[in-house]
Specification:
about 325 residues; alpha/beta; inorganic pyrophosphatase (n-terminal core); Diaminopimelate Epimerase, Chain A, domain 1; six-stranded mixed sheet; about 40% helix; globular
Length: about 325
Amino acid sequence: MEEVLDALRRFDRFLLTSHERLDGDAVGSELALCRILRAAGKQADVYNQDPTPANYRFLPGAEEILNVLPPVERYEAAVILDCSDLERVGRESQRIGSIPRLINIDHHVSNGGFCERTWIEPDASSTGELIFRLAERGGFALSPETADCLYTAVLTDTGGFRYGNTRTETLRAASVLVGCGASPQAISENVYESYPAERFRLLGIALRSLSFDLGGKVGSLVVTLDAMAAAGAIPEMTENFVDLPRSVKGVVVSILFSELAPNRFKVSLRSKGSFNVERVAAAFRGGGHVNAAACRIEGDLEAVRRRVLDAIREAGL
């Protein structure tokens, strides 16, 4: 942390970015750090390859996020948040990698460190929790707007404080953030109770694919490109679909197969208890956390399903 804090104090012009297919931790963390840096008199821009998902556009500053990368020569440092690999920022990874100083703040256990200034805490609930710790340690004041961003990051990456990554420090951070002005009700309504009708049409189609394997210990859903088109949906609307099979009694591992292109799938994995889905994802050059991970696999759906189930068996389920 100290090396990261030192860099944030020493330099004045920052680019902040995160991974493709944005989630609440990514957006909340980068918007919060942007506000912290600007309040300290720094120049900071947030760039993401993908548009901000609709249910996170309420966050303060979301309207300023850039989706076209500016000339990178204007930046002294880039902060890559919630990313275990530089390539995960998307098409502009090479240009971002050319910025003189790269800083990585992340909590993925699969992060092996891809730049010289790195702060990785796999035990942290979220990157948002790390930004909270950074602000506390650095003596940065947290405005209500910054608190909203960080609370959203922590809330979403802990599944509403339900997952095993919810620890004492996580709940203390949430408490302090509420004390700083974060609004749990308003945030939850925006994040969880503002979905478009197309999402539920897509969910209805996806639920027809619900299947169980390995004696009922694995539950899965499939979202195809045809299903997306039929529902009038977009990829961001599948957020949290992967959690649904896990809610079935007896299911230990939940899978969402999302078709990205013909014969190419994103495989999202969730687990209960101590079963390590990061090991499963790593078998396909993916990564994540013990109870939440993802990878991408090429092949037809049934071949991909067989390979994933085989990897789950080999991991000990």
